[in-house]
């Protein structure tokens, strides 16, 4: 069982490169103009718009910021030659190479840098000074419906999948929202409602995502979701304020007869690390299965890294087990090292192998199955698994994130308050 389509999205997105320059005949060519830009990816016969802001005039200060509703994602810009720039997508192994044409527009492509995925790319063009997403100012069509609220979404795939939930907010023509699934969320999407049709798109570094749909007379919706160069999936939806996803605390659990998790993986220096190491005995341990290609894993890391630094002294340890797009420790040192440095991770990072759900299930054999990156496993002071949370819902999901954070803290507080087992306490006192 390979990674989910949402995970694949993440994989592909892991690659972007922008080139930029100006059309001066003499001397080095300047960066693109500072200000707001509107870009458009060409995906097969479809167009996926995105917005970004460019600031800075040299490699020391230049930043490209992707704009999605209230979300902002910053990427450092490097000059490559005298007429191009290189924008690495931070921890995603990807980059954008683009060029300023004679008319001042940018043209380039979004390109995968992952070994084995090289060659996958999406062409794009961008125009300076345009801040709209889908429809030019003055050309809006009055919306016939307000689709704000919670929608239960059924996606049509070859494999049966649980329904997803769309949380939408409409203000006139403007539409924002997020789609939640059992494995995570799409991050914030931005778009428009025109008459009885709507569109949403998102581009935060991983592959661009597009939703196009129609609002029917019975107030249901139908449409199609597009995932970069991978595939399009048809869907229909019904407004349902009572809709909920399957309980993320009940999807993944230990097989009958198991109480503990057992593994040994190398850290980024190649040193074997196991839960049986003295460092973890008598501690509450948070295990995260992640991948640097996975946007929900990145969002979870943004949450966990500062939490851990604040709480470690209370008797907590954490381990991130990275499953990457190449089964090679040297490659993992690069990708996971980038993640560590970007988010100032001070807990242990191990390399688990290739990013394949079947591989994870085999290597963490006590689990009934492996469904999603990330999955959070919380272990008590006795070394027993007490909670497993499948997926991750980011801050854009509002109440869902708040509920996750509250329960996470409640569970950790309770486990930290439990007594340290005598054997572990004695070994700690004796320094053994």
TrEMBL record:
Residues 1-25 form the signal peptide. Residues 254-417 form the Thioredoxin domain. SUPFAM superfamilies: Thioredoxin-like. CDD domains: TlpA_like_family. Keywords: Signal. GO terms for molecular function: antioxidant activity; oxidoreductase activity. Pfam families: AhpC-TSA. InterPro entries: AhpC/TSA, Thioredoxin-like_sf, Thioredoxin_domain, Thioredoxin_ResA/DsbE_sf. PANTHER family: PROTEIN DIPZ (PTHR42852:SF13), THIOL:DISULFIDE INTERCHANGE PROTEIN DSBE (PTHR42852). This is Peroxiredoxin. It comes from Pedobacter rhizosphaerae.
